[in-house]
Amino acid sequence: MKTYSRLHEKLTKGKFVVTGECGPPRGANKDVIDKKIRLLRGFVDAVNVTDNQTAIVRMSSIAASAHLVAAGLEPVMQMVVRDRNRIAIQSDIMGAYSLGIKNILCLSGDHQKFGSQPDAMNVFDIDSVNLIRTVKDMRDSGKDMSGFDLDVAPKMFIGAAANPFADPFEYRVIRLAKKIDAGADFIQTQCIYNMDRFKEWIRRANNEGLTDKVYILGGITPLKSAGMARYMNNKVAGMDVPESIIKRMDGVDKKSRADEGIKICLETIEELKETNGVHGVHIMAIEWEEVVGQIVEQAGLK
Amino acid sequence: MITASQKPINEIIELVEPYKKLLILGCGTCVKTCFAGGEDEVAVLASVLRLSFKKMARPIEIEELTIERQCENEFIQEASPGIARNDAILSLACGAGVQAMAKRFAKEVVLPGLNTTFIGIQESHGVFTEECSGCGDCSLATFGGICPVTRCAKKLLNGPCGGSQKGFCEIDPDTQCAWHLIIERLTTLKQQDNLKTYIPPKNWNTSLSGGPRKLIREDHII
Predict the structure, then answer these.
(1) Phi, psi of A107 (to 5 degrees)
(2) In the predicted model, is pLDDT for residue A252 greater than 90?
(3) CB contact under 8 A, A124 and B155
(4) Å from B210 to nearest chain A CA?
């Protein structure tokens, strides 16, 4: 079977994969990327490189992904439709592929209202489902959106996001199906803290036969403190941190809270390993990349 | 209707300061309905400006007039004598009205007194909401009569983003998630299949993206 990337190949072989995350710096400092590379190397199968996440201006995901390629790590280049129209999107996909970037995660993008430059105009020429279809069409038909034959088609392994914790819940499986139909090969989910809700979502996806058509990686973010848990629950759109998790973080003394956060992660990973339809985990240790290695080792995923 | 709101008074004072004789020209249709530019607003604004200029010890003569619509030549004509008597016109019309006045009275200074906001409806008394972007290619039939191009902050055509929470949009807890409404409405109409249908990229050529638009009705051209 033809595989598009090393991540793809590992998934086809049935490996329970681990992806990490590298947020590019707010500046042109490549050292920040290099440091994150050192922390993640050897522990993860691929590394998501975020695209101006939370609408804060950072080094481009393409450039940062290219640095990863040069260092021998496999990036999952994130691309949002907030900042580019279809012309720039297709051009950037071709450019990225020419730089050795083989995985893409297609996203809508956080609204600029939350970011560092809320005065900006957004684009949203196409939506994230259209983006998935665009990458798939370029890959499979070798044509751009106008039907023009590309001399070399970008052949990327296509990812999409799913948030089982957003509303309306009933629609979340329909949306997953839509993304799969549009061409998503793998899915990375929002951070899982509410395991009951996640399991209900994956149960429905299993019933619809969706997990046979796509690889699902469960989202994991280690909590550093009870404050972070509360903040994520109240302030971050689409996050669901149940009261029981917040209480658990509150219940240990301050010095041990980070350890407790890691413990919660390990328990979540254990459950996900046993969950039918889950093919790996996506660890988003936001500005806390140094714990990824520990989590991966302790979870027995190395 | 076209909705608008009055510019901050300091901005208006700055705009009209260079002139000694000012015509405040109201518009009696859309912007009257949204309490921004009808006779009442013209009268209140005139009083505020007279008072402000008096306080600054600056003489100004202000004349008040409201016509039915500033965007139609037929009504604009009524304003001619008043315009001739004054140095400048402070138009309380939408941007189309201001420009229609400027086009008709090419040598006169026409100043905008309003910020034009959107095409919308009065949802409840005093509350106006944006409903239409005038994209030139209406697909309301697909979405149960609710426009995601206008009412989804990300113009999503294929379902809600991950920020839809309990029926509200992530960008503002007072803004309903358009997609939540679409899903509810299509469920009521038993048109849930529309939710599963892939909607291809929108053709923006009919929108402002294709450049300023012109509507030509050959059958009405004399």
Answers:
(1) -130, 160
(2) yes
(3) yes
(4) 13
Domain containing B77 — which CATH number? 3.40.50
pTM exceeds cut of 0.90:
yes
Contacts of B157 in chain A (CB under 8 A): 127, 129-130
Q: Which domain holds residue A97?
A: 6-298
> Does a cis peptide bond (omega within 30 degrees of 0) precede residue A168?
yes
pLDDT of A158 reads 98
- Cβ within 8 Å of residue B13, ≥6 positions away: B49, B52, B53
Look up the ipTM and state it: 0.93
Any domain includes B128? no
The answer as to whether A246 is a domain residue is yes
CA distance A178 to chain B (A): 6
Q: Compare CB distances from B170 to A128, A190, A237 and report the shortest one's residue.
A: A237
Total count of domains within chain B: 2
Contact B201 A126 (CB under 8 A): yes
Token digits of residue A153: 């088609």
Closest CA to B71 of B39, B44, B107, B103: B103
DSSP result, A55-116: G---S-HHHHHHHHHHTTPPEEEEEESSS--HHHHHHHHHHHHHTT--EEEEE----GGGSS
Rounded to 10 degrees, what is the CA torsion of A146, A150, A154, A159? 20
Which of B165, B198, B201 has its CB closest to that of A166?
B165
Is A62:A92 a contact under the CB 8 Å cutoff?
Answer: yes
Establish if B112 belongs to a structural domain. yes
The answer to the question of residue A264 being in a domain is yes
Total residue count of chain B as it appears in this document: 222
- pLDDT bin (cut points 50, 70, 90) of residue B165 is confident
Based on the fold, state whether residues B112 and B193 are members of the same structural domain: no
Q: Are residues B6 and B101 in the same domain?
A: yes
pLDDT digits (tens, 9 = 90+) for A35-85: 999 999 999 999 999 999 999 999 999 999 999 999 999 999 999 999 999
**Cβ <8 Å between A171 and B160:** yes
Within a domain: B214? no
Share of chain A above pLDDT 90, in %: 95
Same domain for B95 and B66: yes
Residues of A in contact with B181 (CB under 8 A): none
pLDDT of residue A302: 86
The residue segments making up the domain with residue B77 are 2-118
Last residue of a domain, one of B52, B85, B118: B118
Q: Which residues of A touch B (CB under 8 A)?
A: 81-82, 86, 108-111, 113-114, 122, 124-130, 133-134, 145, 161-163, 165-168, 170-171, 174-175, 177-178, 181-182, 190, 237-238
Q: Rounded to a whole number, what is the distance in Å from the CA of B155 to chain A's nearest CA?
A: 6
Per-residue confidence (pLDDT) for residue A236, from 0 to 100: 84
Out of B70, B91, B118, a domain closes at B118
Please report, as a single letter, which amino acid is at residue B33.
T
CATH code, A247: 3.20.20.220
What is the per-residue pLDDT for A235?
A: 85
